[in-house]
Amino acid sequence: MHPIATSLIESAFIAASRLAKRRFDAQAPRAGEVNRDLLQRILRRQADTEFGRRYGFHALRSASDFQRAVPICTYDDIRADIERMARGESNVLTRDPVVAFGLSSGTTGNQKLIPFTTYGNRRNMAISLIMRGAVYEAIPAARRGGRGILLMSGVLTGKTEGGFPTGAASALAMNNMLKGRLKFWVSPDEAFLIRKQTDAHYVHLLFGLADPGLASLGAPFASGLLDFFQLLEARWPALVDDLGRGTLSADITLPPELDAPIRARLRAHPARARALGREFERGFSGIARRIWPALSHASAITGGSFHLYADKLGRYLGDLPLVSSFYGATEAIMGVNLGADRPVYAMLPTSAFWEFIPAAELDAERPSTRLLDEVEKGERYEIVLTTFTGLYRYRLGDVVEVVDHHGKTPVVEFVHRRGSLLNIAGEKTSEQAARHALTEALSRAGMELIDFSTMEDLGATPKRYVFFVELDARGQPVDVAQLSAWLEEALRRANPFYATLRARMGPIALHPVQPGTFRELRDLLISRGASPSQVKIPRVVTEGPLSQLLMARRVGG
């Protein structure tokens, strides 16, 4: 496309995004009303589906009617219906033709198939304008536009029995973007179809380094951005050599249908390569803006499990803003970040119909729910959603805390996934508490945490926590007994309920693991179907291949 045409389209996109954000702000004072109106639209659209007839959607006139008629459900409750859809049956949960099935990450259980429809995809595109508008509002420099590096995989995992493609939500979204005319990235389209993440990152780096005017960096998760910069630090001599000569390193082996078009796009940039080499020799602190001075921001999800990686990114990003622009799952886009300083999100009243189960009722047989404009600041809830794509009163499993309000829409912070708590005696130790305690203990020892996971050892007497930790000990010997004692102290402070119930549990088992263990764990998750750009390290593992890998990789074990 001609550069002038591209610039005009990009300007129109930025204007549309800012308008979408203003509309969202205008709706915020009546968010509950907007959300209840959305529910009526969903019910009318899906009234003649098999599910809609089963629960009398035609007769439901209010949110209260809907709540009385339709029970709260989990994936297992609708699994049979979704499997029928995956085999090709239509009009089961949604009247709209299904075009693909998103695969959930499977961090806390088996992967789930979530239906995607053309109508739902169009609605997600409209929601994405709000997200971009919020970024342009929070970071004025982003309004200059320009191309960036986008670290998303478009690799799909396979097809259902009915022939529908399957993959991570980000991979399905990337495939849709590849079909579009406007490209916001410097890499060739084929780079997004490379299966091995390190090879894909190398190719993205090669094209990104050639462009000193790069405008942005983006990845689904902070872990992906960290991998990207760590690869740059480890492989920069080869990258500089390839950039100077217009070649692709021999150890990057790609299938012919990807290799040929990527190599055809390569150009020699000897002067740029020499300049970059000098910068890399100076070290990697603040490297992002040193080699790409026009960068306005980086974007990636930084909350929850990804806080650990976001902290480490600071070394490479320096003062470059890192924005966690949205809160989403395979099932729906849930919230938009209204600022650039912390991962909190205003719930989107036009994305899905929202209900919230109070934390005190999470384990109740028939929990009550609150509506969007009924939740209270400082309280925690599990999200329940109803969508246009066939999910009705569906328990998402995400527990959030309401930290503020934007008009009448709650601003939430992700706390944990149900099933990701350590809970031997009712103490309910969250990932956040475990991470804070571990970081505090290691700080006292002068060590840095690379990654970690935990497990409940229910076979021990008494039952106990197990921590698997990959450390940067900075050349020091690791005193496991002392670290365990400090971790115990820190965990008591991080979770008062743990301190109260500690007498019912055995001492913590702390196992340092060999370097590269968590990269192996990620590779194992990818081999089991996780997307290379969307894989999450589970903070609590159970018996099975993951725990076996961790046990086998213990230092001295």
Oligomer state equals: single chain
Count of alpha and pi helical runs: 18
Low-confidence stretches: none
Class computed from helices, strands and strand pairing: alpha/beta
Q: How do the strands of the widest beta sheet line up side by side?
A: 9-10-11-16-15-14-12-13
Largest pleated sheet: 8 strands, antiparallel
Mean pLDDT: 92
Structural write-up:
This protein has 557 residues and is α/β, with parallel strands linked by helices. 40% of the residues lie in helices and 18% in strands. A hairpin with a 7-residue loop joins strand 14 (380-386) and strand 15. It has helices at residues 3-27, 31-45, 50-54, 63-69, 75-86, 118-138, 169-178, 197-209, 222-245, 256-265, 270-281, 287-291, 307-317, 431-445, 480-494, 496-501, 517-527, 545-552; strands at residues 98-103, 113-117, 149-150, 158-159, 165-167, 216-221, 297-301, 322-323, 326-328, 333-336, 345-347, 353-358, 370-371, 380-386, 394-406, 409-417, 448-457, 464-472, 509-512, 540-541. The protein contains 18 helices and 20 strands. Helix 1 (3-27) packs across helix 6 (118-138), helix 9 packs across helix 11 (270-281) and helix 14 (431-445) packs across helix 15. The longest helix has 25 residues, at 3-27. It has an eight-stranded antiparallel beta sheet with strand order 9-10-11-16-15-14-12-13.
